[in-house]
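S1.2 Input.
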Amino acid sequence: MSRVVRADAAAVSSATFAPLENPTFRAIWLGAQVSSLGWLLQTVAVSWLMATISTSDVMVALVQTSTTLPVFLLSIFAGAIADNFSRRKVMALGWCVIALSSITLTALVGLGFYNPWMILAFSCLAGCGAAFTDPAWHASVGDILRKREVPAAVTLISVGYNAMRSIGPALGGVVVASFGPLTAFAIATLTYLTMLWAIGRCKWSGRPSPLPREPMTTAIHDGARFTALSGEIKAAIARGTLFGLTSISILALLPLVARDQLGGGPIAYGTLMAGFGAGALCAGISNNVLRRSLSQERLTTLACIACAACCLALAFTPSLLVATIALTLGGAGWVVTWTGLDVSVQLSSPRWVVGRTLSIYSALSSGGIAAGSWLWGVLAENYSLSLALECSAGALLLVAATGFLLPIHQWKDSDQDPLGFETPELALDLKSRSGPIVVKIEYSIPETNLEAFLDRMRERRRVQSRVGARHWTLQRDLQEPQHWTETFRTPTWMDYLRLNHRLTAADKELDQRLLELHVGKLPPRTKLAIERPTGAARKRDQSTSFFFRR
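S1.3 Output.
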């Protein structure tokens, strides 16, 4: 029995670190760890500098808001850009913005020309850069690695960041206490330049599309529509937003816990952050083992409860040791929740839209974090720090209970890669912008297959609508009741081509299941038509209809 357990543990360990065998992923991942260390050093320095020059608890808590609010506002645009342009170049652009922010802040602090609002402004600029880097990096994981390695890669990204979190804040506390915030800002700038060097050194590309690039407004609309029609993604987004809103109190109020409740300085604050990072690191390393033992929904629920227990401990303890242990538990819950939700969105998204779904998820969860940072800061300033943490703990328990309404399903290993599409031969010379296009698919369904057919057509409507179908309807012939017609529209001929190029193997399985219910010598017939208003000037492409069979 023990040999079996050891073999399973070895297999899990191998699966966890397998993505590091890819040289491109390894180089970018290592660069991300160095830059994460710099980001954490800068976060400690900014938070402590704000706590020393401002007497407002809200201003201290707004440090978290300043870096997360831009992600909320810009991520959806960044995701559309990541799906339409080179994700590598988008990452480079984002890190250039972060480096520029750090260089300018370092210079201003060195000259002694700064105030609380200026600090928040440059933190906000760094957040703007992060809004572009995060969706592009997470979406690139599926471009660099095989699909089965994606969960391990996402876990490694989280583990790496939280490994830096376990040493970065403590190191930041030592640097700030010994040399001052200016040194921490200078070191952070160097780490960002290291990440830019890693991106410049490595080359990777997404899967090319045979179709021209989508307009930005269309890309954003299509990403929002796909997300709205995907139950798994909506559940992950809702849970992430609520978790961010309630759990961010741990990090947003931690400088106040260190300063007011424990009576410590930057080293105490760094120690508390190190405890949080250590818990996150341990949970990340054991994430595969946990997923084999418990469902993702159960893990998410337990993680919310762990964060609630951390908040309660911080609200009442005057001991640095007890607070650090509590933060270890909170860090574990933090990484288990975010890793699980991130992978759920990744595996539920085809490659053509993954940047947009991840950006929408990131935007709304970051919006929850930004709102929560402000909310708990206001509560702490107007009432008390202990009350803010107690209310946060109660809210986290309510978030744990939302699993009954918005469950996180087990990750499915379904094929989300597009299958490609052969453009049908047409009798007319259509342009890309010609339209609207009307698609009709005719079925012959006997009465015995009717219930199964209607069930599958409900799924068919969701599948077709989320890849671009508009005004989807299902009609039954009144004179020949076994004849059914599925009808939908696309605004242009190019939109019709995009719709078919987006269909995955999992989507095509539904076609086969519908074919099993169809009777007749010929398969279901697809007819294409271009819609024209009555009285319009006659042109060459104004046909009544034409069709092809498939």
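S1.4 Remarks. Residues 1-14, 536-550 have pLDDT under 50 and may be disordered.
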